[in-house]
Amino acid sequence: MQYPNTVRIPFLNDFTRKCQITASDHSENKGGGRHHYHVQCEDERGAYETQIDFQHGALTTVGFNGLFSVALLAILIDHLKSFQEGEFSTREAAIAITDLEKALWALCARADERQSRGVLGAHAK
After folding, report:
1. 35 CB burial (10 A radius; 0-12, 13-18, 19+)
2. Are residues 56 and 1 in the same domain?
């Protein structure tokens, strides 16, 4: 699969400058979002790459075929919290965790509202 769209990492440093993120085109279905991302990082010691695929299509018609945004947020929160439990705890990481938790809350509130209207998992407003 080709990933023609570059995703910019803001505030580059010596490490993130060595990573490139590309994304698929916007989906042609109702939501229009991007669902596939490719990450490549390389330095003199070697290379790493991975792909992230998000749910594409309504669960009611296509079933599970990718990661939910809330799952990725939960992973990021857990990852950062694990460092907060050790010697690398920082104020900035605590702020990032709080903001990620706010984002997770907002998406879960959106899902709850959609479920209450009977449109959760469907391509419907």
Report:
1. buried
2. yes
